[in-house]
């Protein structure tokens, strides 16, 4: 049994060894593999990226291409456009004005000689601004003056539309000639006479000018926007860098160097991360073992069971991971629920749930496809659901077949979890894929149940761990020792059953193992079968043999029954906990009746001769049986067991045992003793309740 001051020292070394085992098994799941590769050689195998990292060189190249693809931004000057259109309007308006003035002069003076073409050009220039008169030739002006009003109006409309359209598109220095040609082409398609066409072409050379100017701010902003739209080029963990037989180009070589698979020195940081993870898990396991050792009075065998189950479970996961890939999903077959079943049956439900969490975390690393830095969350969820389901479905275990029955429920939960993964996935699955993966879940549940049933006796025998399943087997009335007790000492058998009922209720009230108390109580007086007639509950229609014996001899016979029972239990290879209950259930109590009887004849009698040699109870369950054994016998002796008498006897017996130091070695607290006293009283009141006194028939 653990001593509180020594339990940590006993737990820490095995926990450290377990952590080292975890570290070794997960080593290759976080360590990056390196390769000896030369440029322009052929890859001997397919190499995947062990990490997720940005390819900064490729990102920079794409950003540069995006920036270069942005055309220069130009700002079209509306002032220049409006100015040139005004010049055209001014020219045609000046021509109209010239003819109006000529008509007025001819009306005022009919003797005015006609003007020559040169004179007309000179007068027209006087009506035009200097920019127009300086740029247009006299021949162009004379041509406009020689056209009819209809041709001029049509020319004005066509030219202004063509010029406005060209200027609105923007005219830059490098495309001025193209813009002029576009206007000239529009004029040529308008069927003007040759002279007017030439004049309009001359006007186009004057009015079509640069009006689109480079805008640095807009261009710079557009390039910035283009650069921000480029997403970083990421190399994902698990992404194929080069396939087997493919040539190692400079680009591929740089990627291999970037992800770190060409380094001759291994990266130590993943190992540090793994060490930290293992240290945290191991610390939690050690704390949980220490807490259970202190609260539930574990022995070293139960700690060994936890560690051995952990070793088997992690090895099982590691072996399965070697055959698991993204295509086969074999992790669904892993019978991970075996660990949860064993933990619950051999130890406790709380330790089963907590260890399930630890195993699931470890599985996320082991099943990461040996991609450093990756965690397979899907496996972790599946394993956790499987183990929690196993613990929940084993709520009422009466025999080993309960494990097989729970396999059916686990199968349904496995299938539901697998369907959940399928429906949440963006990948397309066929009905055959669903059937295969669902079958994996069923196989996992069945394997878990079978392995648990097969490994349970192994743990019970090799480690001596007493499971609830074993206790249920020992509680079967057909057990040889119980049949012997029933046939040879029926009174003791009935007494043992009563003590079992009361003890179980009291244990459950304080959180102790009620099943252990019940089974231990069944066997605690098995030693009375050696000489059953010397115990009063078996003396039916016979004189008490002790009436013919000395008190000292009687005491020797009574005191020997716990140790006779322990010897019988050892011969039948019973669990140590049951043997200890049989040996310790009387502690070192005093046989007061025979002691006082001997003292009447021999005042110098030694009290130690009438005390049980012990040992004192070490377990809570044994201490409770010790109390219930005395209480049941005392209450049975009452002729009229009222509630007040029961409470007085129970409190008196507990008080005497505490005062006599019989419970000093047990971990029971005063608060727990108060709860035990109340629970025993309630149980006894229900058993020894008041009964109706039936009237007797009067005699004639």
Automatic annotation (TrEMBL):
Pfam families: 7TM-7TMR_HD, 7TMR-HDED, HD. The chain crosses the membrane at residues 7-27, 268-291, 303-323, 329-347, 356-373, 407-426, 438-459. Signal peptide: none annotated. SMART domains: HDc. It comes from the Bacteria. Residues 488-643 form the HD/PDEase domain. Keywords: Membrane, Transmembrane, Transmembrane helix. InterPro entries: HD/PDEase_dom (IPR003607), HD_domain (IPR006674), HDIG_dom (IPR006675), Metal-dep_PHydrolase_7TM_extra (IPR011624), Metal-dep_PHydrolase_7TM_intra (IPR011621), PgpH_phosphodiesterase (IPR052722). NCBIfam families: HDIG. PANTHER family: CYCLIC-DI-AMP PHOSPHODIESTERASE PGPH (PTHR36442:SF1). This is Hypothetical conserved protein. It comes from Oceanobacillus iheyensis (strain DSM 14371 / CIP 107618 / JCM 11309 / KCTC 3954 / HTE831).
